[in-house]
Amino acid sequence: MSTDAATEWGSLSQPFYISTTKTRQKYKNFRRDPRVQLAFDDPTGFQCIVVDGTVEIWENHQRGLPFFRRITIKHRGEAPDDRTILDRLAREQRVLLVITPEKPIAAWTHWGF
């Protein structure tokens, strides 16, 4: 498994959706090997959850549009119309990483809780 640490914002809802681009190393890594390990860290409370899973790469922007819209709203506060979003996704070579945990929440590795 390759190491590719990146800060991503999200919640513990499943599956996990992460937007990235085809130019990033994590895209290349997951094309080669879909195994992933996510770490959710609370540095102020010395708490951490580690989740093992697999990544599916969605390159079809229309398929991922509802999730890209939610990500856009989370980071920008609002989202433009669908055509504007789709144009931006194509221009930026965006893909959606859909991460499915291997185990149920109760079996995730954790400490500090």
Question: Could you list some keywords that capture this structure?
Answer:
113 residues, alpha+beta, Pnp Oxidase, Chain A, 5-stranded antiparallel sheet, 30% helix, globular
Give the name of the CATH architecture.
Answer: Roll
Measured by DSSP, the beta-strand proportion falls in 25-35%
Look at the structure and give the CATH class: Mainly Beta
Main sheet summary = 5 strands, antiparallel
Radius of gyration: 15 Å
What is the oligomer described by this structure?
single chain
CATH superfamily: Electron Transport, Fmn-binding Protein, Chain A
Distance between the termini: 27 Å
What structural class is derived from the secondary structure elements? alpha+beta
| Shape designation | globular
Number of separate domains: 1
Which spans have pLDDT < 50 for at least 5 consecutive residues?
Answer: none
Number of helical segments with 4 or more residues: 3
What level of helicity do the residues show? 25-40%
H and E order: EHEEHHEE
Indicate the mean pLDDT.
89
In CATH terms, what is the fold-level topology?
Pnp Oxidase, Chain A
Q: What is the total tally of β strands?
A: 5
Task: Offer a quick outline of the entry.
The chain is an alpha+beta fold and 113 residues long.
Detailed description of the structure:
The protein is an alpha+beta fold and 113 residues long. The chain has one domain (16-111): Pnp Oxidase, Chain A (Roll). It is built from 3 helices and 5 strands, in the order E-H-E-E-H-H-E-E. It has helices at 25-32, 61-76, 82-91, and strands at residues 16-21, 35-42, 47-58, 94-101, 109-111. Strands 1, 2, 3, 4 and 5 form a 5-stranded antiparallel beta sheet that branches. A hairpin with a 4-residue loop joins strand 2 and strand 3. Helix 2 packs across helix 3 (82-91). The longest helix has 16 residues, at 61-76.
